[in-house]
Amino acid sequence: MNIVICDDERKVIQDVGEICRSYFENEIYIYGFYNAESLLRKIAEINDVIDLFILDIEMPGKDGLWLKQELERYHYGSSILYLTSHDELVHEAFGRYVIGFVDKVKFYKQPDLLIEKLKIFKQSEEQKETIVIKDELGSFCIYKDQIVKITSEHVYSYLEYTTGRMEKGRLITEKQLIRKTLKDWEKELGDNFLRPSKQMIINMDYIQRFDKIIILKDGTELSIPRTNYGKCHDRYFDYCGKKMKWR
Questions:
Q1: To 10 degrees, the CA torsion angle through 235, 238, 243, 245?
Q2: Please, are residues 17 and 32 in contact by the beta-carbon 8 Å criterion?
Q3: Looking at residue 93, what is its pLDDT?
Q4: Residues with Cβ < 8 Å from 153, sequence gap 6 or more?
Q5: Is 215 within 8 Å of 221 (Cβ atoms)?
Q6: DSSP state of 102
Q7: What are the backbone dihedrals phi and psi of residue 114, each rounded to the nearest 5 degrees, phi first?
Q8: Are 211 and 204 in contact (CB under 8 A)?
Q9: What's the rounded Cα separation, in Å, for the pair 214 and 242?
Q10: Between β-strands 98-103 and 29-33, what pairing exists: parallel, antiparallel or unpaired?
């Protein structure tokens, strides 16, 4: 597990990091940054996907609200937990991946406030759906949210998925040929997958930009047939709206 903490106070980074280490029994890596700009400069050097960002809302220079927008451009689905002493900023900070807020003033007297939010994050990770895939080479398990896209190849399909590695801010994917049709995939995958064409299914959580051309987090550019554009556009933004509701 990889956790990034960004706060302009050294003591906050140290104390939050210690609580994270004591709560998560498994091996974790913690990266600390004192401002948003340094985080963005160095984040590409971390070759694994970040599981959780813990961000101060108000920092000198670029604040945590600006930082969230920048991170969402490159880090699919990474959960965000905010540290704040300014309740008036909470409403503006809500977003698609924000799992909660911890009051910095109360935090030192009540460290359980942070632990409760870490529990929410851990439960969401443990509830991830797993798919068992069987083919001629045997079988393997994959989390559903690791799947980036699936492309038709007659009665087979190419499954592209991320193993968590990043390179220059982009996801690195791997590909495997599976004897399974897109129709069968559609029955199994669920609501967060979109079929923009007859040949492809994509995970909407990996869409970086939706326009006339869809750009995925791994840099792939996809065109949508004109007959499908309106339906796909409405479904994607409806899905985003549901994801952005308050938690």
A1: -170
A2: yes
A3: 47
A4: 177
A5: yes
A6: E
A7: -75, -40
A8: no
A9: 20
A10: unpaired
Q: Which residues pair with 32 in a beta bridge?
A: 5
Residue among 80, 78, 40, 79 nearest 61 (CA): 40
- According to the model, what pLDDT value does residue 246 have? 37
Mean pLDDT of the chain: 81
Percent of the chain with pLDDT over 70: 84
Compute the distance between CA of residue 43 and CA of residue 199 in angstroms, rounded to an integer. 34
3-state secondary structure of 169: coil
Query: For tokens 């670029």, what's the residue?
Result: 62
**Residue 72 corresponds to which tokens in the numbers above?**
């969402």
Cα torsion 176, 1, 50, 88 to 10°: value is 140
> Exposed, middle or buried by CB within 10 Å (0-12, 13-18, 19+), for 241?
exposed
Neighbours of 158 (CB within 10 A): 14
Beta bridge partners of 166: 171
Task: Name the pairing type of β-strands 138-143 and 221-223.
Answer: unpaired
Is pLDDT above 60 for 161? yes
